[in-house]
Structure formats: structure tokens, C-alpha cells
Amino acid sequence: MRAEKSSFWHIGIIGGSGLAAGIELEDAQEIAVSSPFGQASGPVTIGRLGEVRFTFIARHGAGHAIPPSAVNYRANIDVLKRCGVTDVLALSAIGSLREEMAPGHIVMVDQFIDRTAGRAGSFFGTGLVAHVSLADPTCPRLSAMAGAAAELAGAHVHPGGCYLAMEGPQFSTRAESRMYRGWGADVIGMTAMPEARLAREAELPYAVLGMVTDYDSWREEEAGVEVSHVLEVMHANARLARHALRALAASLPARREPSPIDTALEHALITAPEARDPALVARLDAVACRLFGERD
Known about the structure:
Blueprint (H helix, E strand, L loop, with lengths): L9 E6 L3 H5 L2 E6 L12 E6 L2 E7 L14 H10 L4 E10 L9 E3 L2 E4 L25 H13 L4 E2 L3 E4 L8 H10 L3 E3 L2 H10 L4 E10 L11 H25 L26 H6 L5 H4 L4
Parallel strand pairs: 1-4, 1-5, 5-11, 6-8, 7-9, 9-10
Antiparallel strand pairs: 2-3, 3-4, 5-10, 6-11
Helix pairs in contact: 3-6
């Protein structure tokens, strides 16, 4: 059985194209990491901010070439796990379903409504069945620390919010947007699911630093969402996110105490050992290495 997770922080960042260069990681190097779950969105950039190790992957690939529905979320999470990250922070552009969550604000997402379809949402399957708890899908510790760092960077931060994950790539109709508000969703996006599900299966604490770019189309007196406006606000938000990451690195405790999420698979596997598919077990050499042994 693999040793417990490192007591040193190693933050995995999933974010937009070009952000890694703007973070100005020290000792940065770009490397390609292979995954048994297919091709990841691209290479990772590994480096440091001060004493904290960071690994970045661009969710949509170089030049934003991969649409939300085609992102290989399993490979991206698997690659981050192979790089040894202890925690994952997703930087995501989101639309607002609430007047008080205005463009330019940051929302630390704490719940999800998943409306995506056709995306591989689990590392497990026939021959190796697992059911992890997802009642609280984001890590409260990482969310609180990232939110505090964003405030230090000058952001208006909302400490919680329910994220409606839609399939896309089109934006919502007005009827859909009003329905999502009625369901209790606060913000809307296209990428945080199944990321959050997969991070939990990989025993990686996961948080979303949601950067509001627009009001979704529920406001009848305004035009619908236009990508040109989204991009304009996104550029300003990206600058803020870079400052927030530096503040996060500076504020992390010197020692990373264990998280309950570090052992999320402990009682999740229900397939009897003799019935487990050896090929699937082998594919999980990174994701479930704590249970199935060290990686080579």
C-alpha cells in the first residue's frame, strides 16, 4: 500500500490557455505526461511560486482548441495525479445567475448541478466498481484559502455558490437560464463537471475559483451573452487570478495536514478482489495507487 500523501503542498492548477506564462513560475519546465485514459489537453508546466510547487495544465489546450464537451477530463486529472499534486484548484470562467454575483467577482463554488451528457464521469466501471461520496464536492479548506487569497489580491469574493454545469458549447436560452435560477443555481459554466467527480475519485481535494464574466441570459432587459464581452472580462479576471495564486502560495501553511479527501476511496470499492478486472486495476496505477500499490 502506498505511503500517505506528502506533507508538502503541490497545487495542481487547471486553467485557461496562456495563464501559466503569466504566473511566472520559478524553475518552470513544460513536460508531456502520458495517461492510460488517453490524450490530456496538453503538456503540463511544473514550477514553483516561492516554496510551493505548482503544476499547470490548460484545460482547452494550446490556443483554446478543445471545446468543453471534448476535453479529456479523465486524462487531465490522471496526469495531475501522476505529477504528484496534493490538491487541485480549477480556474473557471462562469456566468452569473444572481444579481449580487456581478461580472468581475469571484465565486468559490461549493455545490454543483450536473447537466452535462456523454462525458466520461468516472475512472471506474465494469470489473471495478466504486462509489465515492460527493455530497460536498469541493474541498472547504482549499476553497477558503483560495478565496482569502483572492481577497488579498483585491477581488470581491463570494464564499459559496451552486454551479450549474451545462453541456454547451452554446450559451443558455432565456428559458433555460430562468429555470436554472429556479433550481437554486447561482452560477453557470461548462467545465467543472466531471472534473470535480474525477478529482474526488483520485483522492484530490478540489476547489473552483469561479471568475464571473457575465450575467447569463435571465435578464430580460439585456442582450444575451456574447463571447466578445466574456473575453474582455476574462482578460481582467486572468490578471486577478495570477495575483491570487501568488497570494495563495505565500499564505499556505508550511505543512500540509491530511485531508479526509486524501482517503476518499477507502470504503468506496465494492467489487470483490477476485472479481476485479486486472486491466482496469492497471489503468488506475496513479488514481488509486494508494490502494493498489506504488507506481513504477
